[in-house]
Specification:
elongated; about 90 residues; mainly alpha
Length: about 90
Amino acid sequence: MNHKMPSGGASNYSWTVVVFLMLLYICSYIDRTIMALLVGPIRADLGINDTQYSLLAGFSFAVLYALAGIPLGWVVDRWSRRGLIAIGVAGW
C-alpha cells in the first residue's frame, strides 16, 4: 500500500492551521493554570481565605463553562468556525 502524504499547498495549509491552533491551546492552558502558581499572592492581595479562593478560581470557572457551553455549541454549528476563533482570540 502507498501511504504518501498529499503534496501541495493544502497539506501545508492544514499543518499550519494545526500548529496555530496548538499554540493557541498552549497559551490558553498556561493562562488557566497560572492561577495555581499565584494562589499565595492572590489570597494576600485580596485578603481572602482558601474557600473564597476556590470559589473564585474553580467554581466560577465551572459555572462559566457550563452556562456558555450550550449557546456556544449552537453558534459553532451555525457560524463560521474561522470567524469564531478570531472573535474568541480577540476577546481573550
